[in-house]
Here is the input.
Amino acid sequence: METAFFTYPATTDIRTGKNFMNLSFDNTEVAFAYKSNKELKQAKWLFNTMDFGWLVALGTRFTPFLMKTGLPIDGLVRKTIFKQFVGGETLEQTAAIAKTLEEYNVQVILDYGVEGKEGEANFERAKEQFIKVINYAASQKNIPFISIKVTGFARYELLRTLNEAPRLRSGVHDHEAETEEWDRLRERMYDVCEVAAEKGIGVLVDAEESWIQDPIDRLTMEMMEEFNHEKAIVYNTFQLYRHDRLQFLKMSHQIARQKNFILGVKLVRGAYMEKERRRANEKGYQSPIQLNKDASDGDFNAAVTYSIENLDNIAVIIATHNEHSNKIAAELLEQKGLPLNHAHVHFSQLYGMSDNITFNLAKAGCSVSKYLPFGPIRDVIPYLMRRAQENSSMSGQTGRELSLIKKEMQRRGIMK
Here is the structure.
């Protein structure tokens, strides 16, 4: 996710001259009201550290290795990067954070942050864990969604093989063993979505690499057709840094209209850009990634607009750290005379990042959540390393976080 570095002025309707919305993402008093002075100082130290690219590169390279050796670095990780970006090691430990967020009208998307492990037994355990998370979310007032990865309960090579199968879209495949494995995957997915539908909890299906995405899209659309009737239960994730995803969104919407179900849409820019470009270059095919950031931004904002213009049967989650994109969505709702907390519109940012967006959206009356991963500290290390790399490499992200934290510390009179 990318971040703009300024606040856009209110939009003016040319026809009426009416000024819309004075939403600002610079209000640090609102953004950090939930943090104590000590927590603010800790966040400043962490983002200062992540501002050194060489240090992040060393840390992300050696931390996973050091964790595997059994060296006692758990405490350091737990008090720093784990505390900033993760809700806890268990479901129960997320409760305190969820309760705090609820006080500020911010909801939670729960994510079991453990990376997928191969083997049917592990796939079944992952399915049961997802169901456990759904049941827990249903017992809380503040958790309307959970996030899942299909690679959590599917063999990676199966998805890659099916992605390349020319007859996949017709539902036929050459190899009986893989057909049976696909059927087991569909049963696991159905079991998860069925419990979610019973409990009224949304299931956000993460996007993955382009070379395994087609079967994930197909499976997710099947689940939407089954469960997205009275309300959106299942959501597919559209990575708009791919140049084909805006058209895929529109195509998915046409299918939803034809088959009379609500299209669940989670809009993100994307998470695999360098990997995608490297693989395309190595294998000699056209990269699925947009040519530049402007193209990604353009398609993302067009997807936001398209979704809000079709809220009769699109439910959209705008999951971005880009201030301009969030503001576009909020202003579109106001221009159309729709409530900012429209049942089919939700905003989301990662826990530990972009509090200026999340809490100011909530203050304005939008439905907004923090994406809150949890899991044993050693199991969520891959997630934490991605967050460190993202903040270090994302243009201006760490600097933006630091400037806002320093501004709030100055306002509180605790800046040294």
